[in-house]
Amino acid sequence: MSRSLWAQRSASMPRAPVDVSDGFVHLSSAAQVEETAAKHFAGQTELLLLDVDETRLVPGTLRWEPSRGGALFPHVYGEVPVTAVVQERALPWNGEAFDFPPL
Asked: How far is it, in rounded angstroms, from Cα 84 to Cα 47?
């Protein structure tokens, strides 16, 4: 998520335009996030990697659904409380790729 979008948070995580149009919040698992970043965010600076604790989501809002290549991705149908975000880290772009912190 961009720093500017995250700065707009209140009680819930702000939604990116794609989240609004699709009707759910797109998330990626730790195993998926590097590919997701490369595919959808390459070249962007000022990004944050937000770690979401699924046990802090409203029960029943998290669904694992087929997406890229048939892999199951976490989608949240409803709000993501900011209290579910347990860590935020910079995700720097080095000119060729993202420099991911240890996951």
From this structure: 19
> What residues are paired with 76 via a beta bridge?
25, 62
CATH code of the domain made up of 3-91: 3.20.170.20
* Distances in whole angstroms, Cα of residue 42 to Cα of each of 18, 26, 63, 90, 98: 16, 17, 26, 14, 8
Q: What is the DSSP string of 17-52?
A: HHHHHHTSEE---TTTHHHHHHHHHTT--SEEEEEE
At position 78, the amino acid (one-letter code) is: G
- Between the alpha carbon of residue 51 and those of residues 62, 69, 70, 91, the distances in Å are 15, 23, 23, 12
From first to last of its 103 residues, the chain has per-residue pLDDT tens of 999 999 999 999 999 999 999 999 999 999 999 999 999 999 999 999 999 999 999 999 999 999 988 999 999 999 999 999 999 999 999 999 999 998 8
Give the single-character DSSP code of 5.
H
